[in-house]
Write a structure and sequence with these properties.
This protein has about 270 residues and is mainly α. The protein is about 65% helix and about 5% strand. The N terminus is likely disordered.
Length: about 270
Amino acid sequence: MIPRFPGAPQGEAPAEEPNGQLLDLAAELGFRLSMAGAEVDRVEESMQRFLRAYGVESGEVFAITNCVMVSLTDEAGRSSTRIRQVPAHGTDLTRLMAYNALSREVASTAPALEEVQRQMEELAGLPKGYPVPVQILGSAVGAGAYALFFGGSLWDAVAAGLCGAVVGLCNLALDYLETNQFIRTIVGGAVSALCALLLVGLGVGKSLDAVITGALMLLVPGLIFTNAMRNILTGNLISGPNLVLQALLIATAIALGTGFVLSLAGSV
């Protein structure tokens, strides 16, 4: 059944939108790049190159951390626009590299739009993230290494690694429950401080500061802050401050979670 626009004369189908498939694919590419953690500049440039590969020089693109927009005007003066909201997301380097490769292929060879659609559907089937055991192991190794970096002993690194593994499990559980990042960070900070207190009390670690700091480094928004500074320096004065605020909120959540447990332990 052909959809009817409100107010359109009965029996008349709406005019076919010019370059509709091209707009859909450009917006989809920008959306998927954003969901993979690409910077705003990369998203805008990729969408612009996508349009130019198919001879569209009048296209306009705009991206911020939670939205991408694509608009173009055809030879008859008719305008078309696509807007995609980007929900909260992390960084998936595997998908990011895959969509970057697709963007470069389109820019250099301009394959048929049906082929681009097929490749996007294949990339959508890529596994999300690493297996759970690998993520837990990475959290443990990262926390232990940070404990050593901040002056802890080998036993402090072991304690921090155990704390990091628990924090990793906690984050996975909260991700499964679709908890927002602020609450997830508060819980992670509280869990890391509690585990550090227990392990140091049992004699596994010696320096409470080194153990807690090593575990908390897993929660520090370093990549977010780096992208924020990059956006600000390149003139993206919407996305940059937005990411700075996000980083500050995460840092506040870390302080709230950790401080609550430490203050409670001090009073006990």
